[in-house]
Write a structure and sequence with these properties.
With 279 residues, the chain is mainly α. The chain contains eight helices and four strands, in the order αβαβββαααααα.
Length: 279
C-alpha cells in the first residue's frame, strides 16, 4: 500500500510539471511518461541507484570477511544472502537496495571498510539487512528513482521557462510562466518531503532490528558515532540528493543547504536508543 501511494504521489507531481510546461497535452505526455517510470522504477530502481555510484559487485574471494559476516547475519535474520557491492569512495557509508529480499543488494563504500572495527561493521551490515527484512528497500529505491526523475523534469521545465519554451503554455491550458516557475520550485521540494516521510521512522526500526540480528547494539552505536564524524570530515565525492535517504547516515550532512532536507533522524537519538537496549 505504501509503495502504491508513493508511486501515485510521484505520478501526480510529474503530471503537474507536464501541465505547467505544456498544458493539457503536456499532462497527457507526462501521464504516459509516469507510467513508464513506474514500471521501470519497480524492476530496475536498484540497478539505477547502483549505477549512479558506479558500484561494483565484490566476490567472496576479494572480501571473504565481509561475505562471511553478511551470510551469518542473513541466516540470523532468516533472509537469503544478498549480493554485495563496493563503492570506491573515501566517505564511509552504506545502503541496501532491491525490490525484495530475493533480489536484495548491500552496498558499502571503501571508506567504511577502513574506519570501522569488525563489530561496528557487523552492526552496519545488520542495519542494512534489517531494511531488507522490514521491506524498506523497494520503497526507498523507488523514491530515489522517482524523486531524481522529478528533479530532472523540474530543471528542464525551469530552463524552458527561462528560454521561453512555455511562452504559449497559458493558451494551451498551462499555468503560464508564473505557474511554471512555481512548479519547478515546488516539485523537487515535494519529492524531498515524500522521501523524508518515508525514511525517518524506518531508520529507528532498522537500528533496533539490526541490533537484534547482530546481538550487539553497542557495535552499531559505535559505528554511528564514527560515521557521523567521518562523513562530515570526508564528504562524498558526488552524492545524489534523491538517494540520501537510502544511506545509513546522511551523505549530505556536511552541506548546510541540504540539511533543510534531512532524511534521517538525529544521530544522537539513534545512538541513545541503541545504548538503552540490552541483550
Amino acid at each position: 500500500m505504501k509503495t502504491t501511494l508513493l508511486l501515485g504521489l510521484m505520478t501526480v507531481l510529474i503530471i503537474f510539471i507536464g501541465g505547467a510546461v505544456g498544458g493539457q497535452s503536456g499532462m497527457i505526455m507526462a501521464f504516459f511518461l509516469a507510467g513508464i517510470m513506474n514500471i521501470g522504477s519497480y524492476w530496475f530502481s536498484d540497478k539505477i541507484v547502483l549505477a549512479m555510484y558506479h558500484a561494483q559487485e565484490i566476490s567472496p574471494q576479494d572480501h571473504p570477511e565481509i561475505h562471511q559476516m553478511v551470510m551469518e547475519l542473513a541466516q540470523q535474520a532468516g533472509l537469503p544472502k544478498p549480493r554485495i557491492f563496493l563503492i570506491e569512495d573515501d566517505s564511509p557509508n552504506a545502503f541496501a537496495t532491491g525490490r525484495n529480499p530475493q533480489h536484495a543488494v548491500v552496498a558499502v563504500t571503501s571508506g567504511i571498510l577502513r574506519i570501522l572495527s569488525r563489530q561496528e561493521l557487523k552492526g552496519v551490515l545488520a542495519h542494512e539487512l534489517a531494511h531488507v527484512k522490514n521491506r524498506d528497500i523497494l520503497i526507498g529505491s523507488i523514491a530515489a528513482t522517482m524523486a531524481g526523475a522529478i528533479m530532472i523534469l523540474a530543471y528542464m521545465a525551469r530552463f524552458a521557462a527561462i528560454f521561453g519554451g512555455s511562452r504559449d503554455s497559458e493558451e494551451r491550458g498551462g499555468g503560464g510562466i508564473i505557474g511554471l516557475l512555481v512548479m519547478t520550485i515546488v516539485a523537487p521540494i515535494a519529492a524531498m518531503l515524500i522521501q523524508m516521510a518515508i525514511s525517518r521512522s524506518r531508520e529507528y526500526l532498522a537500528d533496533a532490528s539490526g541490533a537484534q540480528f547482530s546481538g550487539n547494539p553497542l557495535g552499531l552505536a559505535g559505528a554511528l558515532e564514527k560515521l557521523e564524524t567521518a562523513s562530515k570530515q570526508i564528504p562524498m565525492d558526488d552524492p545524489k540528493p534523491a538517494t540520501a535517504h537510502m544511506f545509513i547516515v546522511n551523505p549530505l550532512s556536511g552541506r548546510s543547504l541540504f540539511n533543510l532536507f534531512s532524511t534521517h533522524p538525529p544521530i544522537e537519538e539513534r545512538i541513545a536508543r541503541l545504548k538503552a537496549m540490552r541483550y
